[in-house]
Amino acid sequence: MKYSLSLSDSPDEALRQAIAESLVAYNASKAGQSNHRVLSICLHNGDKNCLGGLYGRTDYNWLFVELIFVPESMRGQGIGRDIMNMAEKEAIARNCHGIWLDTFEFQARTFYEKLGFQVFGELPDFPDGFSRYFMKKSLNG
Length: 141
What we know:
single chain, alpha+beta, Aminopeptidase, 3 helices, 6 strands, 34% strand
C-alpha cells in the first residue's frame, strides 16, 4: 500500500477526531469499552466566575486528573484538598479503583503525597532542570 506523511503544527479538530476514533475502536477490541466520561469541578468566586478547578476523565475504572488549578491567592485554605476529595468521591461512585495524574517538580508533588498518592514514574528534564512525576492513588481500601 502506498502512503504519504504530512506534518502540521496547526491541524484541525477533524484530524484529531479521526485518529482518536480509530484508536478508541482498536482499544475497545482488545480491552472492552472504556466507559469514558468527563469529570469537571469548577471553583467559583462570589460572582459565579470560574477561577480554577479540576478537569479530568474516567476510563477503564481509573480517574485521570488532566488539569487542576487553585489561584495562588487561595492556596493553603484546603480548597485543593476539597476539590480532590470531591473528585475522589465521584471516581468511587463511577466504580473507579484508582486515580492518576502528573505534576511538575515545581508544582504539587508533596500536596498529592499528603493525599495518599505515590510516584510511579519520573520524566527527568521535562522541563529542563526539573522532573515531571506520574502519580497514582488506589481507591481500594
